[in-house]
Amino acid sequence: MIVLITILLWKIQKIKMKLKRLNPLSHRSTMNREMKAKKGILSQEELDAEHKKYEDEFVVYIENYQFPEDISKNGKRKLIKNLRYEFFRPFKRLAHRVRAKRKKAEGEGKSEPSRKRCKTYSLKDSQNKLRIAIDCSYDDLMLDKDITKLSSQVQRCYSINRHKENPLQLHVTQMGGKLLNRMEKHMDGFTNWDIHIKRESLIELFKPEDVVYLCAESENLLTDFDADKVYAIGGFVDHNSHKGLSYQRAVAAGFGHARLPIDSFFTLSTRKVLTVCHVFEIISMFCVSKDWKVAIENTIPERKGLEAIADNNSKYNVPETKPSKSCDSSQSAEQEVDTSNKAEL
How many CA atoms lie within 13 A of 290 on its CB side? Predict the structure, then answer.
């Protein structure tokens, strides 16, 4: 009898351990305890080993996961993607902490203002009165996944702006439809952001002669900004399915238009159209450095194949134009930042 009871208890314990291993929440709790036990900065090798551990655990979990019998291949793929996201969330937090510690140890990021200090930076008190508007009038032309990317790009623009001692006057126009639903559902508190969120369209808020639409197809080259103008960025993620649409709309509405002076300093192995957040970051950086080359080089990602033009040492190697009538910047429309999240941002 004692032997039978012992065997029974052993089998029960074995089943419990198997269930615990297959339960992503239990897995996450166990892994979190291991992570909290680690102190100091992990080496890249240790971080890679941690990632491989997660990969192995996830494979076992998926092999034993009970999928619905009537699920389609596409539905199964999406479900696995969501399960993977939840499963790897603790590792992503760990990797983020490791990167932050590395930057701190290397002396990087010291100039970054704290979250508490960022709260003291406001649009109202900012000395920078340059107005930048993200035009969200393309809602009906985007798929749900593109709406998700755009919302992340808008969020990234807000994040960049709030870390500036003198933030730009950021406007988000014609906020509604699928984009508004996405942000209300997944970005709690976005209505409290220190930016100007408007349901009205660009043409309802500003005079056409005061708007300069930034689009890659424009023949006008941006050299500097005019404080009396509103510089609009197309809030559009389309992966080139509607090429030149922002430029066409700008011309039809009677807006001015311009492009960023990227081709004055660099060549790109891909198209010149940038994400919303990349365009905004270039503008934001130029307002501080007054150097287009530095702003562009420090913003555009390596995947764009950025190469400097030989013997180009000029700070403003662009044709002379009146800033009040012409300006340049590229439009947004592609994926990242990774985030991701593009909302490409």
Answer: 0
Contacts of 325 (CB under 8 A, 6+ apart): 256
Token match 């900004």: residue? 225
Helix (H, G, I), strand (E, B) or coil at 308: strand
Q: What is the DSSP letter of 109?
A: T
Phi, psi at residue 134, to the nearest 5°?
Answer: -95, 115
| DSSP label of 259 | B
Q: How does DSSP assign 215-246, residue by residue?
A: -TT-S-B--S--TTSEEEEE----TTTTTTHH
Q: pTM value?
A: 0.63
Angle separating helix axes 144-162 and 276-289, nearest 10 degrees: 20
Across the strands, what pairs with 213? Answer: 232, 257
124: which 2 tokens? Answer: 């109202």
Nearest-CA neighbor of 170 among 123, 225, 121? 123
- Amino acid occupying residue 126: S
| 156-201 per-position pLDDT tens digit | 999 999 888 889 999 999 999 999 999 988 887 888 899 999 999 9
SS3 83: helix
- Give the three-class secondary structure for 327: coil
Bridge partners of 267?
307
What are the φ/ψ torsions at residue 173 (nearest 5 degrees)? Answer: -100, 155
**Residues catalogued as catalytic:** 238
